[in-house]
TrEMBL record:
Molecular function GO terms recorded: DNA-binding transcription factor activity; transcription cis-regulatory region binding
Protein keywords: DNA-binding, Repressor, Transcription, Transcription regulation
PANTHER family the record matches: HTH-TYPE TRANSCRIPTIONAL REGULATOR RUTR (PTHR30055), TRANSCRIPTIONAL REGULATORY PROTEIN (PTHR30055:SF151)
Lineage of source species: Bacteria, Bacillati, Actinomycetota, Actinomycetes, Kitasatosporales
Membrane among keywords: no
Protein name: TetR family transcriptional regulator
A Pfam short name: TetR_N
GO BP: negative regulation of DNA-templated transcription; response to antibiotic
């Protein structure tokens, strides 16, 4: 048993039972070990959850970085969509990710920020746009994953159609990009 095996099994457990039901006791049972042996790899459940969040983000974290030839708008849209797709890959993916610190991803974040600044986005606006897009995405996915049960939308008034999560996400994402566009420097 190694750290990667523990994290992979923990993510499988997450997908089966949800974040609230993930426990080190259940994980140890699943791995066929005694619970204290997990502390060899993770001192606390919080450490385990942080490692799970990092591993769950691998599809987004391994996406190609922007190049100088890329259009900042197209890249920003695709980067944010990739983040959303990655969060949706796991049950409670947004809850797992919320509040985590992307310490293993700092060089990639710096590269993305530099790309936006080099594309004419003022540095502070680039930081705020990335932060806003990230929090908007986590919030959108959090709502989407919370609403994924039977009967959703049944309590809406008859004259109000149910909201399609993907359409709502795209509309909000467009508002972020449209709000950033006038701030570009020449």
């Amino acid at each position: 048993m190694n750290r990667e095996t523990v994290v992979a099994e923990a993510l499988d457990l997450l997908d089966e039972v949800g974040l609230d039901a993930v426990s080190t006791r259940q994980l140890a049972k699943r791995l066929g070990v005694e619970q204290p042996s997990l502390y060899w790899h993770f001192r606390t459940k919080k450490d385990l959850l942080a490692a799970m969040a990092q591993a769950a983000m691998a599809p987004h974290a391994n996406a190609p970085l922007p190049t100088p030839e890329d259009d900042w708008r197209a890249w920003f849209l695709e980067n944010t969509r990739s983040f959303r797709r990655t969060l949706l890959m796991r049950r409670d993916g947004a809850r797992l990710h919320a509040g985590s610190t992307p310490t293993a991803d700092l060089d990639r974040i710096r590269h993305k920020m530099s790309f936006l600044v080099d594309s004419g986005v003022p540095e502070h606006d680039a930081q705020m746009a990335m932060l806003t897009a990230g929090r908007f995405t986590v919030g959108s996915v959090l709502e989407e994953q919370a609403d994924s049960g039977p009967g959703d939308g049944a309590d809406l008034p008859a004259d109000m159609p149910p909201i399609d999560p993907e359409s709502a996400f795209e509309a909000g994402l467009s508002l972020i990009v449209d709000g950033l566009t006038p701030r570009l420097t020449a």
